Amino acid sequence: MGGNLLRPDAGTTFNDITSSSADFNFLQGQFGAGSPRFSIGLTSGATSGEIHVYWGTGPAFTDTPAAGWQNTGNLLASPDNRFDTTQFSGGAFYDSGAHSYSTYGTYSVDYVSLDLDAGWAVPGGVQQMDVRNFTVNAAVMPVPEPATMSAVGIVVLGFFHRKRAKAA
Fold it and tell me: Considering the entire predicted model, what is its pTM?
């Protein structure tokens, strides 16, 4: 298990995060149950939670990706309703980027992560992909050689990083 997690500079708001993408090669399984996704941890006062940005084609986001290396493109600029804002008051399961930014744009960004964790929900019970060039704004997160991510049952990449940060 592993994954990449970006912790932006202090004072970074959701409005400051304008792009997020990754190169990936899906090896087994398919997209489903909100995975894979970019998760953006936000805080405003005593309120904290995540906005999830789903990969794939809406409205179901259950694609079976073609073989070979692909790029997600900048999903934060996508005009469709791929933002899950349900962890915040007034949030929606399928929200637009425009509404997400206008409602939560001033919230502080705690982290941005890439999650693959729905092996339990896809045919065959496994999601597996290689990832390289996980990019947030102009920052390319180092992904060694590329990293293989797997979800068998339930695996959350970045989980241990978040758990460790909350315990500190």
Answer: 0.84
